[in-house]
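One chain given next:
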Amino acid sequence: MIRLTTLIVDYLLVVVTAFLIIPTLGAWSHEASGAASGSITIGGTIALWIVPFVFVVVMITVAEIALMRWLWRAGGRIEKMKRVRLGDFDVEALIRQSRTNMRTVGTAPFGQATKKKKLTTQGSKA
């Protein structure tokens, strides 16, 4: 239920942004830059209107993706807490997960083994 709610919120966020915020921002930027009057050249239109508009759209997209990922992860945490609270969890799966986590501690990314450094004192050689 929480994941479904998260998907609905994500969908509404994307639709509102795509059909309301970005067109309004584009119209405002077009008017404010002077591109609407037709008195600036193509280069001026690109420099004063298109590039800043694309930059803002990309920044909004990145922020929305970050928000959607945060919502998805928070929903997963809430579901986990509800399962533990209600006692609806698989003990064997939790044990397997903890064993997997213990095995992966101390390994480098992509499963490469890490090199352990020798600890030496000031008077001894390594």
